[in-house]
Amino acid sequence: MLRHDALSDEASLVAARRPLFRLQDPLPLCAPRARKARLASLPGLHGVVSRMWDAGRPWVAVVLVGVLTGAVASGLDVLSGWLSDLRMGKCTDMWWMSRGLCCAGLEPGEQCRAWRTWGEIAAKEGHVVARALAQYGVYMVTAVLFALTSSAFVNVFAPFAFHTGIPEIKVLLGGYVMRGFLSPMTLLIKSLGLPLAVASGLSLGKEGPLVHVACCICDLVLRPFESLRGNGARHREILSAAAAAGVSVAFGAPLGGVLFSLEEISTFFPGSTLWQSFVCAIVAAVTLQYIDPFNTGKLALFTVTASQVWRGFELVPWLLLGVAGGIWGAWFIRLNEEWERIRRASGLREWPVTEVGALALFTAVVSYLVVFMRVPSSELVVALFQDCSGPDAYGLCECVPRPSLPARPREQGLTLGTQRSSSNTSSIVFLLLLTAFAKTLLTAATFGASIPAGIFLPSLTIGACAGRAVGLVMDALQKAHPQSWVFADCPADGGCINTSVYAVIGAASALGGVTRMTISLVVILFELTGAIDIVIQLMMAVMVAKFTGDYFSKNGIYETWINLRNYPFLNTKLDYRRDTFLARHVMTPVNELACVTDEGWEVSRLEALLDEEDYRGFPVVKTMRTRVILGYIGRAELWEALMIDSRSPQPQTTSATSAKLRPARHAADGRPWVSLAPWMDEIPVCMSQDTPMELVVQMFQRIGLRFVLLTRQGALMGLLTRMVRPAFPMSSVQPPH
Amino acid sequence: MLRHDALSDEASLVAARRPLFRLQDPLPLCAPRARKARLASLPGLHGVVSRMWDAGRPWVAVVLVGVLTGAVASGLDVLSGWLSDLRMGKCTDMWWMSRGLCCAGLEPGEQCRAWRTWGEIAAKEGHVVARALAQYGVYMVTAVLFALTSSAFVNVFAPFAFHTGIPEIKVLLGGYVMRGFLSPMTLLIKSLGLPLAVASGLSLGKEGPLVHVACCICDLVLRPFESLRGNGARHREILSAAAAAGVSVAFGAPLGGVLFSLEEISTFFPGSTLWQSFVCAIVAAVTLQYIDPFNTGKLALFTVTASQVWRGFELVPWLLLGVAGGIWGAWFIRLNEEWERIRRASGLREWPVTEVGALALFTAVVSYLVVFMRVPSSELVVALFQDCSGPDAYGLCECVPRPSLPARPREQGLTLGTQRSSSNTSSIVFLLLLTAFAKTLLTAATFGASIPAGIFLPSLTIGACAGRAVGLVMDALQKAHPQSWVFADCPADGGCINTSVYAVIGAASALGGVTRMTISLVVILFELTGAIDIVIQLMMAVMVAKFTGDYFSKNGIYETWINLRNYPFLNTKLDYRRDTFLARHVMTPVNELACVTDEGWEVSRLEALLDEEDYRGFPVVKTMRTRVILGYIGRAELWEALMIDSRSPQPQTTSATSAKLRPARHAADGRPWVSLAPWMDEIPVCMSQDTPMELVVQMFQRIGLRFVLLTRQGALMGLLTRMVRPAFPMSSVQPPH
């Protein structure tokens, strides 16, 4: 896996000419240092201002990214809301207003006359059936229309705008460059396509895509800051911060955003990144709260009123929910993967827009049948997370028999009462589980289709449905057998099981199973719900779900998609300590490597080397006999050196301290010669070939090295690079320009 | 700083014979790999069970540590409570009961007759003055008695049990070994001394020491698991988990514990550590909740009922609080440091127990004067964090004029009312600020004295006092000028300023300024208070406080103490990217190094080398001419090799693959020869001498390397090790055995 793989023909061509993926420098090397030194030497006020600006630039960029992310997220929220409302009716006075705005300013209880449903508009005095048909028709037509528009946008203008974007961001922050992924066009299309996709009623969320949007904004903001953008490490730091801002506005969870960036996104996370993420996430959250697109004035989207009292026996269903979440997550990933394979194997991928249209139609038809599927997922989650003390929106609480039931003779009353409630319970439990199952299938088909789509909200919904169902079953059991030793801890006046807590734990388990996030997931969930009292339960559920999920499949959904698309990526979360290999067991040995020596290379010979060999880079050694290492030159750099040389045939001077690489016949004989020193990495990291692989992998993971030269007693013995796979399936999502 | 320093004479002696600090292996190297291989080859059921046990052992240890930490923390809570109550009175029926237990089972409103204050006991029918004197006398005597006992315990039995312990744990997890710091005696003394210290009324907290207690428990639990304990990396992982459990039980913040361990404690944090911390923190929190020492059934200690509504102008006082927290933190650190210097310079350190006794007496005398100082800090914080809707324990809400004041003529009534309220406000504000100031001085003298003492609770209290004072001032201002444009956003019916939110933000700022923690501090605070709605404000306050504090002094309180005690430590949080040095600028060049060559060394010559040179290790090269690197041998290892050789004079066989280090005259001439191969590190990491220092530092920080050999074209040019300072001031806290 970690071998210095030769690329396939097609891919190597891409790599040599216009690399689609390119490894960035792990560290700011020569150029930034020279700039720093120049800045430090500037005299007087000009110097002070320049140095302040130099130190302040990242912060200016970070604050700008935060503000813009908050603003764009607010805009997206408003747009999604308006489009979703438009499927049900319109504001007769001002068509561009959402229902909330249209009906604003009314007294409580007053009917909103300005807002009319499509049924009312189409068949003003008509029959109820005509109304219903008009309503249903518009609902279906808009679903397909929105989905088609969104998908067409994506396919025509910005292929990278599809899907969630998080796998690509992980790859990006792993140190690879992906052209076009953060372009302004992608930003525009994703920002337009996302509200359309959400409003179409497809089983998808807007959270993951918002992270992508935030990263696009970051790239746009950084354009005037050439020195930040050109510096790989700095660029990635600010990208991490942008990702944190994305999560921050997606869930109203600034802290969760920082931790998400820390845990899930970033390969290595120095202190300053933490700070920039912190600032960016806060600025974005404050902006969102200031604009307040939902007019609620608070950030917590799904408020849970959890009682902190819980009984020991409840650990059993909670642990079971965790296990179920893990199993479901692994199953969902498999399902999603299989569907992607089918999509590729059948001709389906040739018709991406059609696929999305058909999916939207099917989703609309199926969803209209079940009340829990008809409503937007976010509203359903709100209802599922609410206990039965408040208003009961979808009849979720009707199954709970009121404790004030009049006492009746036992053989009749109680049995009847229990039967009635349990039959109601069973129907709701059935509906909830059906919703979870249907949504699983729909989401597995949607996530990966050619439309912006996140996985977070669907998983949350499915988990909450299942959790609430388990809670209802527990509640019914307790009500049916209040005297059982199991429920001995329950108070006599009922109110033992809080079904909303089960819903939250179910949601946590499902998310843990799918994303395999840990600490950031817990924080996000508890910023999302405000349920501080159940943090232990959430932690347990997420932990059990992750353990169970990892048992069935090692990769979370994002890693799975990284593999599916063959992105180059080194999973930093895997633990290589079980690895008993030494570096020499897996390295590419020196006799299979193409080395450049210091003995004498003419330009034509170097060009021939580039043509013949398709390695991504070449170690530079003194002689092939001693194999003393002078440096390493990447394929792209060698190519660039030769290009520049062919443009300016004057001999270039070499710095006195650098190891030179030049033909043996000197400039004296009149032939042009090339100094490769400026393009050569003169400080490659060398390790003994007997180093355990775990240490090598740590070098890749934690330091961000691209390659390690392996030696024995000072002589080059082999080479290990980060895994770089051929970029084959990327052709399907290659940018069109 | 990072040079391969020769140790001072005294210290090098310690290093060579019985090292007080010793660097652990950064990675499990040969021995664990061999054990793994042996395990993998075991056949049948025995093999399966052995492998399962091998994989499960860390988890068994982690769960055990969690349970024991929770149990011990509960015990400490009960003991502290009983001792604190004992200062005020005793349970007449059963003297071993705390006031809560003694008075349990009473109806609300019923008077507790079993509990009598000392005043009542001493002067049953006596005069009020006699009663007060008796009460006051016992209060003073117990304060001094408890403090003296605690300090004497520490000084006689376990010097390492003093102070918070967190600096030492940071050093430990940075890869150094400190003998005696985690011994069972330290555990016992710290567990006994801590409740005494808390009950003595000194200005200290029990949170930091609990982390130390958890780590001691960890070391005890690991004793039967020799293979875990011997493996440096594994040992540190489980120690990190124990630290998380310590914070988890100290604050009832399992999530905050994990993040504390991640941010503050651990040098590098692989995925499995995160998991073990997660599990350990949860198990500890559940145990604590199950035992429920406070009989409250909940984990959040200081519940805040924060309204989520806030107005733009409030950002100004909040930011000011952040800035003030940063400045205060820097000032406090300076003050604390100065006091430690005075303690050392004067003869005070020779009388540690006396110092603590005097301090306790002084604290008791001063504290009795001000109501806010007389009560235990934790109760004060609870009161400060409460808004004025509940019961008003310490008159904190009396200054707020009731909105139901009858309307009076403007020139009289309002002015009077305002005056009255503002005079009351100003007196409370004065008392709060006085309390903050006095506690600052007392804490600066206490933190570092020879008694277990944490810094968290005092800082929290001081910050909460200051924050509440600012809130009261804002409230008075708003009440006095309700028509001002500044307060235009405030509702007409009053209730604009929530002073409890100001207290929380003040506490966050103070803690941010002192500890310089960021994300873990926010999480701890919001697990501690349950104030999910003010997470943005908390994040801002902590951020501003850290920025401000960093401007004045780079180090937080823990790093300051690491420096004060001259512990060897590489701060992983400092950003070395501004560093324009190359490795060759700071390395110890090869001509100053003592190298061992492969040319021929007799045992006597090696012994002479050990005697003459006081380096901590020696590079092994082929010849001094080529300087081709064969490996590196540490001083301790070389010494060990020679010791074993002198015990068994038989020539030892060397493995065929290892580089051998042997005298030129072979065993053939009958003289004994030594193979150093088993003791030599054959896989040292080599880097070019032109490597930027930032990369080298990253190697130390993120990979945990101890040293790097620097080369040019394959030849050894120099050496860089982690900073190891002479252990001079440690002599004062050296274990007595």
TrEMBL record, chains A, B:
<protein>
    <submittedName>
        <fullName>Chloride channel</fullName>
    </submittedName>
</protein>
<dbReference type="GO" id="GO:0005794">
    <property type="term" value="C:Golgi apparatus"/>
</dbReference>
<dbReference type="Pfam" id="PF00654">
    <property type="entry name" value="Voltage_CLC"/>
</dbReference>
<feature type="transmembrane region" description="Helical">
    <location>
        <begin position="274"/>
        <end position="291"/>
    </location>
</feature>
<dbReference type="InterPro" id="IPR014743">
    <property type="entry name" value="Cl-channel_core"/>
</dbReference>
<feature type="transmembrane region" description="Helical">
    <location>
        <begin position="136"/>
        <end position="157"/>
    </location>
</feature>
<dbReference type="InterPro" id="IPR001807">
    <property type="entry name" value="ClC"/>
</dbReference>
<feature type="transmembrane region" description="Helical">
    <location>
        <begin position="312"/>
        <end position="333"/>
    </location>
</feature>
<keyword id="KW-0812">Transmembrane</keyword>
<dbReference type="GO" id="GO:0005886">
    <property type="term" value="C:plasma membrane"/>
</dbReference>
<feature type="transmembrane region" description="Helical">
    <location>
        <begin position="238"/>
        <end position="262"/>
    </location>
</feature>
<dbReference type="InterPro" id="IPR046342">
    <property type="entry name" value="CBS_dom_sf"/>
</dbReference>
<feature type="transmembrane region" description="Helical">
    <location>
        <begin position="428"/>
        <end position="451"/>
    </location>
</feature>
<keyword id="KW-0868">Chloride</keyword>
<keyword id="KW-0813">Transport</keyword>
<feature type="transmembrane region" description="Helical">
    <location>
        <begin position="59"/>
        <end position="79"/>
    </location>
</feature>
<feature type="transmembrane region" description="Helical">
    <location>
        <begin position="519"/>
        <end position="545"/>
    </location>
</feature>
<keyword id="KW-0406">Ion transport</keyword>
<dbReference type="GO" id="GO:0005247">
    <property type="term" value="F:voltage-gated chloride channel activity"/>
</dbReference>
<dbReference type="GO" id="GO:0005769">
    <property type="term" value="C:early endosome"/>
</dbReference>
<feature type="transmembrane region" description="Helical">
    <location>
        <begin position="353"/>
        <end position="371"/>
    </location>
</feature>
<keyword id="KW-0472">Membrane</keyword>
<keyword id="KW-1133">Transmembrane helix</keyword>
